[in-house]
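Journal club prep — side note

Before the paper discussion, L.F. wants everyone to see what a predicted structure for a comparable chain looks like in token form. Sequence:
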Amino acid sequence: MLGKRIEKDLEQRDLLKAISRLEGAIRCNPLDKDLNCQLANLYFKNNDLVKAGKLWYLNLTQSESELVAVKSFTNSLGNDPTLILRKLLNRQFFRLNLLEEFQLEKLATLLEAVRKKEEKMPRFLYSLDSHIKGRKRKYSR
């Protein structure tokens, strides 16, 4: 049903309405890959590279246009790993245990950059740090 409404919005060239519908759907299901991909594509069509890049950041493979959007996202945050993680993890209902290994590796790389940059680990990263350490222990056995 949602897909048909979005298709209708796009047929009527109402990109903002389609974006709004997808944003609402993602609030209910933030880790739905298809919805996130659709929304990122619409943001890209609407020339909102920062928002598209945020959604594409944790993709395994990235096209040239996706890389440009991801670069816009990171540049908008001054390439600061703490700010990037805050934006990526700020969603309500964000579930670390549902992420794939390559996504956790990307987050772990950012977390390591935060460790090098910050004197003290920001509180909002405690659960990510704990989750990644737990995964490492699990796989090192």
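L.F.'s comment for the group: The chain has a mean pLDDT of 89. Keep this in mind when we get to the figures.
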